[in-house]
Amino acid sequence: MKPNLTKTIALAVSLLAALPLIAQAAADSAAPPANAERLQWWRDARFGMFIHWGPISLKGTEIGWSRGAQVPSEEYDQLYQQFNPTNFNARQWVSIAKQAGMKYIVLTTKHHDGFCLWDTKLTDYNIMNTPFHRDVTRELADACRRQGIVFCAYHSICDWRHPDYPLGSPGGKSPKPDGNMDRYNQYLKGQLTELLKNYGPLGVLWFDGEWESPWTVARGEDLYRHCRSLQDSLIINNRVGKARDGMAGTTKQIHENPGDYDTPEQTVGKFQNQRPWETCMTICNQWAWKPNDPMKSLEQCLQTLVLCAGGDGNLLFNVGPMPDGRIELRQIARLQEMGAWLAEYGDAIYRTRGGPWKPTKSLASTRRDKSIFLHVFKWDGDSVTLPGLPAKVQRAEALTGGRAEFQQQSDKLVVSIPRANRQEIDTIIRLDFEQSVMDLRPVGFPSQIKATASNVYQHMDDYAAESAFDGNPDTRWATDDGTKQAWVALEFPAPTRISSVRINEALAPRVQKFEFQYREGDDWKTLFTGMELGANFKRSFEPVTARAVRLNILDATDGPTIAEIKLQ
Ligand code: FHN
Q: Would you say the pTM of this structure is higher than 0.90?
Protein backbone atom coordinates (compact mmCIF):
# COMPACT_ATOMS: atom_id res chain seq x y z
CA MET A 1 0.00 0.00 0.00
CA LYS A 2 1.46 3.37 -1.01
CA PRO A 3 2.40 5.27 2.15
CA ASN A 4 0.43 8.44 2.68
CA LEU A 5 3.06 10.95 1.66
CA THR A 6 1.35 13.88 3.38
CA LYS A 7 1.24 12.03 6.72
CA THR A 8 4.88 10.96 6.39
CA ILE A 9 6.02 14.49 5.68
CA ALA A 10 3.94 15.79 8.63
CA LEU A 11 5.50 13.19 10.92
CA ALA A 12 9.02 14.04 9.73
CA VAL A 13 8.39 17.76 10.25
CA SER A 14 7.10 17.21 13.82
CA LEU A 15 10.08 15.01 14.67
CA LEU A 16 12.51 17.59 13.32
CA ALA A 17 10.74 20.28 15.38
CA ALA A 18 11.07 18.12 18.53
CA LEU A 19 14.78 17.38 18.04
CA PRO A 20 16.14 20.50 19.84
CA LEU A 21 13.91 19.75 22.86
CA ILE A 22 15.10 16.13 22.98
CA ALA A 23 18.70 17.24 22.63
CA GLN A 24 18.27 19.84 25.35
CA ALA A 25 16.60 17.40 27.73
CA ALA A 26 19.39 14.93 27.09
CA ALA A 27 21.97 17.61 27.61
CA ASP A 28 20.30 18.80 30.82
CA SER A 29 19.88 15.39 32.26
CA ALA A 30 22.57 13.32 30.59
CA ALA A 31 25.46 12.39 32.78
CA PRO A 32 28.61 13.88 31.28
CA PRO A 33 30.75 12.51 28.48
CA ALA A 34 32.37 9.17 29.04
CA ASN A 35 35.78 8.21 30.29
CA ALA A 36 38.28 10.75 31.57
CA GLU A 37 35.93 13.72 31.66
CA ARG A 38 33.10 11.70 33.16
CA LEU A 39 34.16 12.69 36.69
CA GLN A 40 34.60 16.36 35.87
CA TRP A 41 30.95 17.41 36.41
CA TRP A 42 30.97 15.46 39.68
CA ARG A 43 34.22 16.97 40.96
CA ASP A 44 33.03 20.48 40.01
CA ALA A 45 29.68 19.83 41.73
CA ARG A 46 31.31 19.20 45.17
CA PHE A 47 27.94 18.86 46.98
CA GLY A 48 25.10 16.32 46.65
CA MET A 49 21.99 15.17 48.50
CA PHE A 50 21.80 11.61 49.83
CA ILE A 51 18.28 10.29 50.51
CA HIS A 52 17.63 7.21 52.67
CA TRP A 53 13.94 6.35 52.52
CA GLY A 54 11.59 3.36 52.65
CA PRO A 55 8.68 1.83 54.57
CA ILE A 56 10.88 1.60 57.70
CA SER A 57 10.36 5.37 58.07
CA LEU A 58 6.97 4.34 59.51
CA LYS A 59 8.86 3.02 62.57
CA GLY A 60 11.55 5.74 62.75
CA THR A 61 14.29 3.11 63.15
CA GLU A 62 17.35 2.61 60.95
CA ILE A 63 16.81 1.34 57.45
CA GLY A 64 18.03 -2.21 56.98
CA TRP A 65 19.77 -2.46 60.34
CA SER A 66 16.61 -2.43 62.50
CA ARG A 67 15.19 -5.43 60.57
CA GLY A 68 15.32 -8.38 62.98
CA ALA A 69 16.70 -6.06 65.65
CA GLN A 70 14.41 -3.27 66.96
CA VAL A 71 11.72 -4.48 64.52
CA PRO A 72 11.03 -8.22 64.06
CA SER A 73 11.74 -9.17 60.42
CA GLU A 74 8.18 -10.39 59.80
CA GLU A 75 6.78 -7.06 60.99
CA TYR A 76 9.47 -5.10 59.09
CA ASP A 77 8.66 -6.89 55.83
CA GLN A 78 4.95 -6.12 56.10
CA LEU A 79 5.40 -2.36 56.62
CA TYR A 80 5.21 -1.70 52.86
CA GLN A 81 1.51 -2.60 52.98
CA GLN A 82 0.92 0.53 55.12
CA PHE A 83 3.46 2.73 53.30
CA ASN A 84 1.43 5.56 51.72
CA PRO A 85 3.56 8.76 51.50
CA THR A 86 0.76 10.94 50.16
CA ASN A 87 2.82 14.10 50.74
CA PHE A 88 5.67 12.85 48.55
CA ASN A 89 6.48 15.56 46.01
CA ALA A 90 9.53 14.91 43.84
CA ARG A 91 9.55 18.46 42.51
CA GLN A 92 9.73 19.76 46.10
CA TRP A 93 12.57 17.39 47.04
CA VAL A 94 14.58 18.54 44.04
CA SER A 95 13.95 22.20 44.71
CA ILE A 96 15.05 21.69 48.34
CA ALA A 97 18.30 20.21 47.03
CA LYS A 98 18.74 23.11 44.60
CA GLN A 99 18.05 25.69 47.31
CA ALA A 100 20.76 23.96 49.38
CA GLY A 101 23.25 24.40 46.55
CA MET A 102 23.37 20.65 45.89
CA LYS A 103 24.06 19.55 42.33
CA TYR A 104 23.15 15.85 42.41
CA ILE A 105 20.80 13.52 44.31
CA VAL A 106 21.51 9.90 45.31
CA LEU A 107 18.34 7.93 46.21
CA THR A 108 18.35 4.53 47.97
CA THR A 109 16.63 2.52 45.24
CA LYS A 110 17.19 -0.58 47.39
CA HIS A 111 18.82 -0.73 50.83
CA HIS A 112 19.90 -3.84 52.77
CA ASP A 113 16.23 -4.63 53.57
CA GLY A 114 15.52 -5.43 49.92
CA PHE A 115 12.60 -3.04 49.45
CA CYS A 116 12.63 -1.50 45.95
CA LEU A 117 11.64 2.11 45.37
CA TRP A 118 11.04 1.64 41.64
CA ASP A 119 8.67 -0.36 39.42
CA THR A 120 10.86 -3.45 39.20
CA LYS A 121 9.57 -6.57 37.43
CA LEU A 122 11.92 -8.83 39.41
CA THR A 123 10.16 -8.74 42.77
CA ASP A 124 6.74 -7.76 44.12
CA TYR A 125 8.48 -6.21 47.15
CA ASN A 126 8.38 -2.74 45.68
CA ILE A 127 6.73 0.67 45.81
CA MET A 128 4.09 -0.21 43.18
CA ASN A 129 2.58 -2.75 45.60
CA THR A 130 2.12 -0.25 48.40
CA PRO A 131 -1.07 1.80 48.90
CA PHE A 132 0.87 4.60 47.14
CA HIS A 133 1.21 2.72 43.82
CA ARG A 134 3.59 5.34 42.38
CA ASP A 135 7.09 4.93 41.00
CA VAL A 136 8.89 7.45 43.21
CA THR A 137 12.19 6.72 41.48
CA ARG A 138 10.69 7.62 38.12
CA GLU A 139 9.13 10.81 39.54
CA LEU A 140 12.37 11.86 41.25
CA ALA A 141 14.51 11.11 38.19
CA ASP A 142 12.15 13.13 35.98
CA ALA A 143 12.03 16.02 38.44
CA CYS A 144 15.83 16.06 38.57
CA ARG A 145 16.04 16.27 34.78
CA ARG A 146 13.47 19.02 34.64
CA GLN A 147 15.39 21.09 37.23
CA GLY A 148 18.93 20.38 36.02
CA ILE A 149 20.02 18.21 38.96
CA VAL A 150 21.88 14.97 38.15
CA PHE A 151 19.93 11.91 39.31
CA CYS A 152 21.98 9.09 40.88
CA ALA A 153 21.06 5.74 42.43
CA TYR A 154 22.27 4.09 45.63
CA HIS A 155 22.00 0.30 45.48
CA SER A 156 22.80 -2.20 48.21
CA ILE A 157 24.67 -5.30 47.13
CA CYS A 158 23.63 -7.14 50.28
CA ASP A 159 19.94 -7.97 50.65
CA TRP A 160 19.07 -9.48 53.99
CA ARG A 161 15.49 -10.27 52.94
CA HIS A 162 16.08 -11.94 49.55
CA PRO A 163 16.08 -15.76 49.96
CA ASP A 164 19.04 -16.20 47.61
CA TYR A 165 21.35 -13.72 49.36
CA PRO A 166 23.20 -16.03 51.79
CA LEU A 167 23.05 -13.78 54.88
CA GLY A 168 20.00 -12.40 56.67
CA SER A 169 18.92 -10.05 59.47
CA PRO A 170 19.82 -8.87 61.94
CA GLY A 171 22.69 -7.16 60.20
CA GLY A 172 23.76 -10.10 58.04
CA LYS A 173 24.41 -12.24 61.09
CA SER A 174 22.11 -15.16 60.20
CA PRO A 175 23.10 -17.47 57.31
CA LYS A 176 20.22 -18.63 55.10
CA PRO A 177 20.10 -22.40 54.54
CA ASP A 178 19.13 -22.09 50.88
CA GLY A 179 21.13 -19.04 49.90
CA ASN A 180 22.44 -19.11 46.32
CA MET A 181 24.80 -16.24 45.53
CA ASP A 182 25.04 -16.98 41.81
CA ARG A 183 21.25 -16.80 41.48
CA TYR A 184 21.16 -13.68 43.67
CA ASN A 185 23.87 -12.10 41.51
CA GLN A 186 21.64 -12.52 38.45
CA TYR A 187 18.81 -10.80 40.33
CA LEU A 188 21.17 -8.00 41.36
CA LYS A 189 22.42 -7.49 37.81
CA GLY A 190 18.87 -7.69 36.44
CA GLN A 191 17.66 -4.92 38.74
CA LEU A 192 20.65 -2.72 37.92
CA THR A 193 19.91 -3.26 34.24
CA GLU A 194 16.33 -2.04 34.86
CA LEU A 195 17.61 1.07 36.62
CA LEU A 196 20.20 1.90 33.99
CA LYS A 197 17.96 1.18 31.00
CA ASN A 198 14.69 2.62 32.28
CA TYR A 199 15.76 5.45 34.61
CA GLY A 200 19.07 6.48 33.08
CA PRO A 201 21.32 8.01 32.20
CA LEU A 202 22.36 8.01 35.86
CA GLY A 203 25.09 10.28 37.17
CA VAL A 204 26.44 7.82 39.75
CA LEU A 205 25.71 4.25 40.73
CA TRP A 206 26.40 4.38 44.46
CA PHE A 207 27.03 0.82 45.64
CA ASP A 208 26.92 -0.17 49.29
CA GLY A 209 26.55 -3.33 51.38
CA GLU A 210 29.67 -4.85 49.90
CA TRP A 211 31.55 -5.75 53.08
CA GLU A 212 30.04 -9.20 53.73
CA SER A 213 31.66 -12.48 52.71
CA PRO A 214 29.27 -13.44 49.87
CA TRP A 215 30.52 -10.46 47.85
CA THR A 216 33.95 -10.71 46.27
CA VAL A 217 36.26 -8.43 44.33
CA ALA A 218 35.77 -10.67 41.30
CA ARG A 219 32.00 -10.20 41.47
CA GLY A 220 32.63 -6.48 41.86
CA GLU A 221 34.79 -6.38 38.73
CA ASP A 222 32.10 -8.25 36.80
CA LEU A 223 29.36 -5.94 38.05
CA TYR A 224 31.46 -2.84 37.29
CA ARG A 225 31.93 -4.08 33.68
CA HIS A 226 28.24 -4.93 33.39
CA CYS A 227 27.09 -1.48 34.48
CA ARG A 228 29.74 0.31 32.44
CA SER A 229 28.59 -1.64 29.37
CA LEU A 230 25.09 -0.24 29.82
CA GLN A 231 26.17 3.38 30.25
CA ASP A 232 29.73 4.37 29.43
CA SER A 233 29.47 7.79 31.11
CA LEU A 234 28.35 6.28 34.44
CA ILE A 235 30.39 6.99 37.58
CA ILE A 236 30.64 4.01 39.96
CA ASN A 237 31.93 4.31 43.56
CA ASN A 238 34.59 2.08 45.11
CA ARG A 239 32.21 -0.02 47.18
CA VAL A 240 31.39 -2.17 44.13
CA GLY A 241 34.88 -3.58 44.51
CA LYS A 242 35.15 -3.95 48.30
CA ALA A 243 37.79 -1.24 48.29
CA ARG A 244 37.00 0.47 51.59
CA ASP A 245 38.10 -0.53 55.03
CA GLY A 246 35.17 -2.68 56.16
CA MET A 247 32.53 -0.23 57.28
CA ALA A 248 35.00 2.10 58.90
CA GLY A 249 34.95 5.78 58.05
CA THR A 250 38.41 5.72 56.54
CA THR A 251 39.07 4.25 53.16
CA LYS A 252 42.01 2.09 52.32
CA GLN A 253 41.38 2.34 48.62
CA ILE A 254 42.76 -0.79 47.07
CA HIS A 255 43.81 0.77 43.81
CA GLU A 256 43.53 -2.28 41.62
CA ASN A 257 39.94 -2.81 42.73
CA PRO A 258 37.19 -1.36 40.54
CA GLY A 259 35.48 1.88 41.50
CA ASP A 260 35.93 5.45 40.33
CA TYR A 261 36.16 7.17 43.71
CA ASP A 262 36.71 6.59 47.45
CA THR A 263 33.90 6.77 49.99
CA PRO A 264 34.84 7.75 53.56
CA GLU A 265 31.73 7.67 55.69
CA GLN A 266 30.56 9.91 58.56
CA THR A 267 33.98 11.52 58.61
CA VAL A 268 35.78 14.08 56.46
CA GLY A 269 38.20 12.25 54.19
CA LYS A 270 41.89 13.03 54.49
CA PHE A 271 43.50 15.29 51.86
CA GLN A 272 43.79 13.27 48.66
CA ASN A 273 44.04 14.82 45.20
CA GLN A 274 45.35 11.88 43.20
CA ARG A 275 42.09 10.02 43.44
CA PRO A 276 38.57 11.42 43.75
CA TRP A 277 36.66 10.88 46.96
CA GLU A 278 33.38 11.81 48.59
CA THR A 279 32.44 11.86 52.25
CA CYS A 280 28.89 10.66 52.92
CA MET A 281 27.40 12.04 56.12
CA THR A 282 24.03 12.37 57.83
CA ILE A 283 22.52 15.77 58.67
CA CYS A 284 21.20 14.12 61.86
CA ASN A 285 22.50 10.86 63.33
CA GLN A 286 20.44 8.23 61.56
CA TRP A 287 20.41 7.63 57.82
CA ALA A 288 16.65 6.98 57.67
CA TRP A 289 14.21 9.35 59.37
CA LYS A 290 14.05 9.24 63.14
CA PRO A 291 11.85 11.49 65.30
CA ASN A 292 13.81 14.13 67.28
CA ASP A 293 17.13 12.95 65.85
CA PRO A 294 19.73 15.59 66.86
CA MET A 295 20.66 17.69 63.82
CA LYS A 296 24.09 19.13 63.04
CA SER A 297 24.61 22.86 63.52
CA LEU A 298 25.08 25.15 60.54
CA GLU A 299 28.73 25.49 61.58
CA GLN A 300 29.20 21.72 61.52
CA CYS A 301 27.42 21.44 58.17
CA LEU A 302 29.31 24.22 56.42
CA GLN A 303 32.73 23.43 57.87
CA THR A 304 32.27 19.80 56.85
CA LEU A 305 31.58 20.93 53.29
CA VAL A 306 34.56 23.30 53.28
CA LEU A 307 36.88 20.66 54.77
CA CYS A 308 35.78 18.14 52.13
CA ALA A 309 36.39 20.62 49.32
CA GLY A 310 39.68 21.63 50.95
CA GLY A 311 40.72 17.98 50.98
CA ASP A 312 39.81 17.79 47.25
CA GLY A 313 36.66 15.76 47.93
CA ASN A 314 32.88 15.98 47.67
CA LEU A 315 30.23 15.93 50.39
CA LEU A 316 27.15 13.74 49.97
CA PHE A 317 24.85 15.01 52.71
CA ASN A 318 21.97 12.78 53.82
CA VAL A 319 18.36 13.52 54.69
CA GLY A 320 15.81 10.89 55.70
CA PRO A 321 12.27 11.84 54.55
CA MET A 322 9.31 11.10 56.85
CA PRO A 323 6.79 8.31 56.22
CA ASP A 324 4.34 10.76 54.63
CA GLY A 325 6.96 11.83 52.08
CA ARG A 326 7.92 15.17 53.55
CA ILE A 327 11.44 16.21 54.55
CA GLU A 328 11.43 17.70 58.06
CA LEU A 329 11.04 21.49 58.09
CA ARG A 330 14.05 21.94 60.40
CA GLN A 331 16.22 19.98 57.93
CA ILE A 332 14.90 22.07 55.03
CA ALA A 333 15.72 25.21 57.01
CA ARG A 334 19.26 24.01 57.66
CA LEU A 335 19.76 23.16 54.00
CA GLN A 336 18.43 26.57 52.99
CA GLU A 337 20.97 28.20 55.32
CA MET A 338 23.71 26.21 53.57
CA GLY A 339 22.31 27.27 50.22
CA ALA A 340 22.26 30.93 51.21
CA TRP A 341 25.93 30.69 52.20
CA LEU A 342 26.79 28.95 48.93
CA ALA A 343 24.85 31.52 46.94
CA GLU A 344 27.20 34.13 48.45
CA TYR A 345 30.48 32.17 48.60
CA GLY A 346 29.99 29.14 46.36
CA ASP A 347 32.70 30.47 44.03
CA ALA A 348 35.20 29.29 46.65
CA ILE A 349 33.74 25.75 46.58
CA TYR A 350 32.27 24.82 43.20
CA ARG A 351 34.69 24.00 40.36
CA THR A 352 37.64 24.23 42.74
CA ARG A 353 40.26 21.66 43.68
CA GLY A 354 41.61 21.15 47.19
CA GLY A 355 44.76 22.79 48.53
CA PRO A 356 47.51 23.75 48.22
CA TRP A 357 47.42 24.00 52.02
CA LYS A 358 46.03 20.77 53.44
CA PRO A 359 43.09 21.20 55.83
CA THR A 360 43.53 21.42 59.58
CA LYS A 361 41.00 21.93 62.39
CA SER A 362 41.47 25.70 61.91
CA LEU A 363 41.55 26.20 58.17
CA ALA A 364 41.26 24.82 54.64
CA SER A 365 42.10 26.02 51.15
CA THR A 366 40.58 25.57 47.71
CA ARG A 367 41.89 26.82 44.38
CA ARG A 368 41.01 27.60 40.78
CA ASP A 369 43.11 29.10 37.99
CA LYS A 370 45.22 31.93 39.54
CA SER A 371 43.41 32.10 42.87
CA ILE A 372 43.60 30.32 46.23
CA PHE A 373 40.59 30.61 48.55
CA LEU A 374 41.79 30.53 52.14
CA HIS A 375 39.03 29.42 54.57
CA VAL A 376 39.80 30.29 58.19
CA PHE A 377 37.65 28.80 60.96
CA LYS A 378 39.92 29.68 63.90
CA TRP A 379 42.55 32.44 64.15
CA ASP A 380 45.70 32.11 66.27
CA GLY A 381 45.90 35.67 67.56
CA ASP A 382 46.04 38.53 65.05
CA SER A 383 46.80 36.46 61.99
CA VAL A 384 47.13 33.02 60.48
CA THR A 385 50.56 31.75 59.41
CA LEU A 386 50.82 29.36 56.49
CA PRO A 387 53.77 27.39 55.11
CA GLY A 388 55.47 29.29 52.27
CA LEU A 389 54.58 28.75 48.58
CA PRO A 390 56.85 29.00 45.50
CA ALA A 391 54.50 31.59 43.97
CA LYS A 392 54.10 35.29 44.63
CA VAL A 393 50.82 36.60 46.01
CA GLN A 394 49.67 39.63 44.01
CA ARG A 395 46.71 40.66 46.13
CA ALA A 396 44.42 39.45 48.90
CA GLU A 397 40.71 40.09 49.03
CA ALA A 398 38.42 39.27 51.95
CA LEU A 399 35.33 37.79 50.29
CA THR A 400 33.45 37.78 53.61
CA GLY A 401 34.13 41.46 54.25
CA GLY A 402 36.84 43.67 55.62
CA ARG A 403 40.37 44.33 54.45
CA ALA A 404 42.84 41.44 54.25
CA GLU A 405 46.58 42.01 54.56
CA PHE A 406 49.50 39.64 53.99
CA GLN A 407 53.27 39.41 54.47
CA GLN A 408 55.01 36.85 52.27
CA GLN A 409 58.41 35.32 52.90
CA SER A 410 59.96 32.28 51.29
CA ASP A 411 59.07 29.98 54.18
CA LYS A 412 55.78 31.45 55.31
CA LEU A 413 52.79 33.57 54.45
CA VAL A 414 51.08 35.55 57.21
CA VAL A 415 47.51 36.66 56.53
CA SER A 416 45.48 38.96 58.77
CA ILE A 417 42.11 40.62 58.86
CA PRO A 418 40.53 42.95 61.46
CA ARG A 419 38.84 41.00 64.25
CA ALA A 420 35.56 42.73 63.44
CA ASN A 421 35.60 41.10 60.00
CA ARG A 422 36.23 37.56 61.15
CA GLN A 423 33.32 35.26 60.46
CA GLU A 424 31.92 32.82 63.03
CA ILE A 425 31.95 29.89 60.62
CA ASP A 426 34.36 30.65 57.77
CA THR A 427 36.37 33.74 56.87
CA ILE A 428 37.27 33.52 53.19
CA ILE A 429 40.26 35.36 51.74
CA ARG A 430 41.00 35.08 48.05
CA LEU A 431 44.71 35.23 47.24
CA ASP A 432 45.45 36.14 43.62
CA PHE A 433 48.65 35.14 41.81
CA GLU A 434 50.23 36.04 38.50
CA GLN A 435 50.07 32.51 37.16
CA SER A 436 47.99 29.39 37.69
CA VAL A 437 48.21 27.88 41.17
CA MET A 438 46.85 24.51 40.13
CA ASP A 439 50.22 22.77 39.97
CA LEU A 440 51.49 23.96 43.36
CA ARG A 441 52.36 20.90 45.42
CA PRO A 442 50.03 20.32 48.37
CA VAL A 443 51.64 21.31 51.65
CA GLY A 444 50.68 20.28 55.17
CA PHE A 445 51.24 21.89 58.53
CA PRO A 446 53.84 20.30 60.81
CA SER A 447 51.85 17.97 63.03
CA GLN A 448 51.64 19.12 66.65
CA ILE A 449 51.32 15.48 67.57
CA LYS A 450 54.60 13.56 67.85
CA ALA A 451 53.55 9.94 67.71
CA THR A 452 55.45 6.82 66.69
CA ALA A 453 54.62 3.14 66.36
CA SER A 454 56.45 -0.13 65.89
CA ASN A 455 54.27 -1.02 62.89
CA VAL A 456 51.75 0.81 60.62
CA TYR A 457 49.32 -0.95 58.29
CA GLN A 458 50.96 -1.04 54.83
CA HIS A 459 52.87 2.13 55.84
CA MET A 460 49.71 4.09 55.05
CA ASP A 461 49.34 7.65 56.43
CA ASP A 462 45.67 6.92 57.07
CA TYR A 463 46.69 4.41 59.75
CA ALA A 464 49.75 6.19 61.20
CA ALA A 465 50.39 6.49 64.94
CA GLU A 466 49.00 10.06 64.95
CA SER A 467 45.56 8.65 64.17
CA ALA A 468 45.41 7.21 67.69
CA PHE A 469 45.87 10.65 69.23
CA ASP A 470 44.05 13.02 66.84
CA GLY A 471 40.79 13.27 68.78
CA ASN A 472 38.89 11.75 65.85
CA PRO A 473 37.29 8.38 66.72
CA ASP A 474 36.81 7.67 63.03
CA THR A 475 40.54 7.51 62.31
CA ARG A 476 42.71 4.79 63.80
CA TRP A 477 46.28 3.55 64.13
CA ALA A 478 46.40 0.12 62.52
CA THR A 479 49.02 -2.58 62.14
CA ASP A 480 49.62 -5.16 59.46
CA ASP A 481 47.36 -8.19 59.39
CA GLY A 482 48.68 -10.94 61.61
CA THR A 483 50.66 -8.63 63.90
CA LYS A 484 50.64 -10.02 67.47
CA GLN A 485 52.86 -7.50 69.27
CA ALA A 486 53.14 -3.78 68.65
CA TRP A 487 53.43 -0.47 70.48
CA VAL A 488 52.24 3.04 69.84
CA ALA A 489 53.80 6.00 71.66
CA LEU A 490 53.10 9.71 72.16
CA GLU A 491 55.82 12.29 72.88
CA PHE A 492 54.73 15.39 74.81
CA PRO A 493 56.12 18.83 73.81
CA ALA A 494 57.13 19.23 77.49
CA PRO A 495 57.06 17.08 80.67
CA THR A 496 53.36 16.43 81.30
CA ARG A 497 51.47 15.26 84.40
CA ILE A 498 49.07 12.41 83.70
CA SER A 499 46.79 10.42 85.98
CA SER A 500 44.30 8.61 83.76
CA VAL A 501 43.87 7.21 80.28
CA ARG A 502 40.94 6.21 78.03
CA ILE A 503 41.56 3.80 75.19
CA ASN A 504 39.15 3.07 72.32
CA GLU A 505 40.23 -0.16 70.64
CA ALA A 506 38.89 -0.46 67.06
CA LEU A 507 37.70 -3.82 65.71
CA ALA A 508 37.84 -5.16 69.28
CA PRO A 509 38.53 -7.60 70.77
CA ARG A 510 41.98 -8.27 69.33
CA VAL A 511 44.27 -7.15 72.17
CA GLN A 512 44.76 -10.00 74.64
CA LYS A 513 47.56 -8.60 76.83
CA PHE A 514 49.14 -5.17 77.18
CA GLU A 515 51.08 -2.81 79.39
CA PHE A 516 50.69 0.96 79.65
CA GLN A 517 53.99 2.76 80.23
CA TYR A 518 55.58 6.17 80.65
CA ARG A 519 59.14 7.12 79.82
CA GLU A 520 61.51 8.31 82.50
CA GLY A 521 64.88 9.26 81.02
CA ASP A 522 65.58 6.47 78.54
CA ASP A 523 63.61 3.83 80.39
CA TRP A 524 59.99 2.76 79.94
CA LYS A 525 58.25 2.23 83.30
CA THR A 526 54.97 0.29 83.51
CA LEU A 527 51.99 2.09 85.04
CA PHE A 528 49.66 -0.91 84.75
CA THR A 529 49.08 -4.06 82.71
CA GLY A 530 45.87 -5.63 81.43
CA MET A 531 44.29 -8.27 79.22
CA GLU A 532 41.45 -7.06 76.97
CA LEU A 533 40.93 -3.39 76.02
CA GLY A 534 37.67 -2.90 74.03
CA ALA A 535 36.10 0.36 72.86
CA ASN A 536 35.67 2.06 76.22
CA PHE A 537 38.69 1.17 78.33
CA LYS A 538 39.39 3.61 81.21
CA ARG A 539 42.06 3.48 83.95
CA SER A 540 43.27 5.96 86.57
CA PHE A 541 46.67 5.66 88.24
CA GLU A 542 49.02 7.48 90.59
CA PRO A 543 49.89 10.76 88.79
CA VAL A 544 53.27 10.84 87.06
CA THR A 545 55.10 13.54 85.07
CA ALA A 546 56.37 12.11 81.84
CA ARG A 547 57.87 13.11 78.49
CA ALA A 548 56.17 10.24 76.70
CA VAL A 549 53.70 7.38 77.13
CA ARG A 550 53.13 4.23 75.18
CA LEU A 551 50.67 1.36 74.86
CA ASN A 552 52.75 -1.78 74.53
CA ILE A 553 50.64 -4.65 73.18
CA LEU A 554 52.14 -7.98 74.21
CA ASP A 555 49.61 -10.29 72.56
CA ALA A 556 46.80 -9.90 70.03
CA THR A 557 44.64 -12.23 67.96
CA ASP A 558 45.27 -10.13 64.84
CA GLY A 559 46.78 -6.76 63.89
CA PRO A 560 45.87 -4.51 66.83
CA THR A 561 44.22 -1.21 65.88
CA ILE A 562 43.46 1.72 68.21
CA ALA A 563 40.99 4.49 67.35
CA GLU A 564 41.86 6.81 70.22
CA ILE A 565 44.05 7.17 73.30
CA LYS A 566 43.06 10.10 75.53
CA LEU A 567 45.24 11.14 78.49
CA GLN A 568 44.33 13.29 81.47
O1 FHN B 1 24.89 0.10 56.27
C2 FHN B 1 24.86 1.23 55.44
C3 FHN B 1 24.19 2.36 56.13
O4 FHN B 1 22.88 2.02 56.50
C5 FHN B 1 24.17 3.56 55.19
O6 FHN B 1 23.42 3.25 54.03
C7 FHN B 1 25.60 3.92 54.83
C8 FHN B 1 25.62 5.07 53.85
O9 FHN B 1 26.87 5.12 53.24
N10 FHN B 1 26.25 2.78 54.18
C11 FHN B 1 26.28 1.57 54.97
C12 FHN B 1 27.28 1.60 56.07
O13 FHN B 1 28.57 1.83 55.52
A: no
